Structure prediction request, 780 residues.
Amino acid sequence: MLFSQRMAGVRRSYIREILKVTARPEVISFAGGLPHPESFPVQAVAKAAADVLAESGPDALQYSTTEGFAPLREWIAARYRERHGIEVSADEVLITTGSQQALDLIGKVFLDPGDGLVVERPGYIGAIQSFSLYGPDFRPVTLTEKGLDCTELERVLKAGGVKAMYLVPSFQNPSGITYDLETRQKVAGLAAEYGALLVEDNPYGELRFKGGAIPPIRKFTTGPAILLGTFSKIVAPGLRVGWLVAPTEMRDKLVTAKQAADLHTSSLTQRIIHRFLTDNDLEAHIESIRSRYGAQRDRMVAAIHERFPAGVSCTEPEGGMFLWVTLPEGISARKLFEAALARNVAFVPGRPFYLEEVDNTFRLNFSNASLPAIDEGMDRLAACIREHLS
Amino acid sequence: MLFSQRMAGVRRSYIREILKVTARPEVISFAGGLPHPESFPVQAVAKAAADVLAESGPDALQYSTTEGFAPLREWIAARYRERHGIEVSADEVLITTGSQQALDLIGKVFLDPGDGLVVERPGYIGAIQSFSLYGPDFRPVTLTEKGLDCTELERVLKAGGVKAMYLVPSFQNPSGITYDLETRQKVAGLAAEYGALLVEDNPYGELRFKGGAIPPIRKFTTGPAILLGTFSKIVAPGLRVGWLVAPTEMRDKLVTAKQAADLHTSSLTQRIIHRFLTDNDLEAHIESIRSRYGAQRDRMVAAIHERFPAGVSCTEPEGGMFLWVTLPEGISARKLFEAALARNVAFVPGRPFYLEEVDNTFRLNFSNASLPAIDEGMDRLAACIREHLS
Prediction:
C-alpha cells in the first residue's frame, strides 16, 4: 500500500548483494565490475581539479545547464567524427550522471507499460533493472558468438509491438561478446525496417586489446537511434559522467526528464574531465589500460583452458572487462558459487542476467584482479569445478 | 507514438526558458534561483579536492556504494541531532545527486497514477515537474503567511486518497514564507492522523537571517516522514550533493530506485564536501552567506515599500533566497514581465507555481544580485509597475 506498484517487482541489485558477501579480504573476487584502481589517472585528475577551481571556480561550483558543459559536449561529438566517422553535433549530446542515468531517462521518456523491449540474452543487469521500473514487456534475443541471433531477432520483431532494442555490441556485459560487422549491419537494417528505436550502449568500446575496430551499429542504421557512452572506463567511474547522443526532438524530451531527475550533472566533475582530456595524452592513457586488461584477460583465458575440466567453455573477449563461462547442462552455477565462496573465490552466477531460468553460466571479471590473484583464484575455482562436476 | 504517455503533459521548465531570455548582460535579473557566486568557498573546496585526491585518490575515483559516503552520512545524522534534537541514524541517510534527485526517487517509489499529493499553493515548480512524471492527483493547499492553511488541509485530507504531502516549511520557494511553530505542529498532527507520508524539503533552512529557529515538522509527527536536504545553498550547487532521511524500509526501496537511476552520487564530490565540512569553520561560512543575503533582502524589501505603488504587497522572508509579490487582482504579472524585460529587468511570473490560472503574483530572487543591482533593478521595476497599473 505504501509503495508504488512499479516497485513491486523490483529487487535490489543481485550483484550488489553478492558484492557484500565477497568483500571479505581473504576472498579473491572476480565478481565485481570495477576498473582497476591503479588505472586511474589520480595525479592528472588532481591537476585538472586544481586548474579548474583556480581558473573558473565560481562557474564550476554554480548551477549549470541541464544539457551539460558545452566544451565537453563538443569533445564527445568530435570523437565520434574522428574515431567512427559518425556525424554527431554537440547539440545532440546530453551529459548524464553516468551512463546508468541514460538508461533511466530512456525508460522514462520512451517506455509505457507493455511496450516491447528487445534485450540481449544474457543481458546487462543494470539496464534490465532500470527499464523494469517502466514496465516494458522484455523480449530477450539470444546472443551468439557473432552477436545477436538475427533470425530470432527478426521473428521477435515480426511478432510486433517492439518499441526499442537495448544492445551492447562491443565486449558486452556479461558475456564479453562483440557483434561482428555483418551482424551489426543486419541488426541496423532490421531495427530500421521495423521502426524500433535502437539504444546502443558502448561503455567498453575503447578497451579493445585484440582484433580490429568495428563501427557502431548506429553507423549503418537509417532508423531512430540513441548512442550511450561513459568516461567511467577510460577516466574514472567515481566522477559519474556519461552521455547520450540523440536526434534533437528526442534529446529535448530527454533534457526535460533530466531536469526533473537531477537538474544537471556536477559542473565540477564535468569540467575536471574536460580539462583532463584536453591536457593529457588520452591515447597513451587508454593504451596503458588496454595493455593491463589484455594481459589479465590472457592469463584468465589460459587458466581456463589449462585447468578447467572438459565440457566447460568460455568466451574469448577482444576487449572490455568480462568473460563468460558455460558449464555442462544441468550443472548449477549458483551451487558452484556457494562452494567457491567456501574456498574464498567468487564470481557472479549467470541467473540474474536472464529473464528466465538458466543456471549453468557465470561471469568472470578480469579488469580488477592482479595477475597473481588471477593465478591463485583460477586454481581455486578450477578445483571447485572439478569437485562439483564429479 | 514515439514518446511515453507520461511525457505528454510535461514541458521543459518554464523558469529555465525564462532564464534564457533574461541572460542578456544588460538585464538585471531577479528571475533565477542561484546562490551568489561570491559566497562559494572556492579556495577551501580546492584545498579539500587536493587533499582528498592526495590521500584517497583511487577510492574517490572508484565506484562506491549507492547509500553514499559513510562519514558524510554520519555528519548529516549528527547535524540533525545537534541542531534540531532529531534522532537520525546515518543508516537512514541516503546521499542523492542534489535534492532534486530525491524528488524523482520519491515519486518513483511512492506515487502511482492518481495518488493524491498535497502540494503548497504556490508550490516549488521543480517538485511539481518531477512528481508530475508519476501521474499523481495534485491537491494544492493554500499557503498563508503562517504556513499551510490547516483548515483547508484538513478538508483535503478528509476527502481521502492523499498518499503524501510535499512541503517546504522554511523560507519556501517561491514565496519566502516560513511555517510558524503552531502550524508545524498542526500539520504534523494531521499528516499522522490521515496516514499521509510527510515529505519535508528544507533547502534553505540554514539561511535564516532574522527571527528564531523553528524545528522541522518531522520533529512533531508520529507518522511516516522523509526529510530532504542539500549542500547546494551552504557549500555549492555545482557539486550536486543532497540527501534524504527515511525510515529503514523506505530507505531500502529508495536505494533500489537510486541504483537504477545513477548507481551512486559522485564519490569525489561527496568526499570533497565531507572534507570541506571537517576542515573548515562551517558556522562562520554560513554566517557570511546569511549576512550577505540578509542585507540584499533588506534592500529589496525596503525598495518595494518605498517605491512600489499602493496595492502591491510582498512577503518579508526571514531567510532563504526569494520573496513574493502580489499585484492587485486582475493585473497580469506575465504582461508586466514583458514590459519589465523591455526595460532590462526580470523576475519570474507566478503562474507556473500554481496548478490553476493565477496571474497576479511574481517571484523575486535576492540572493544573486549585488546591492547596486538591487537599487537600479527595483527602480526600473517600480517604474514598470506604476506604468502598468495606470
Notes: Chain B touches chain A through 78 residues (CB under 8 Å).
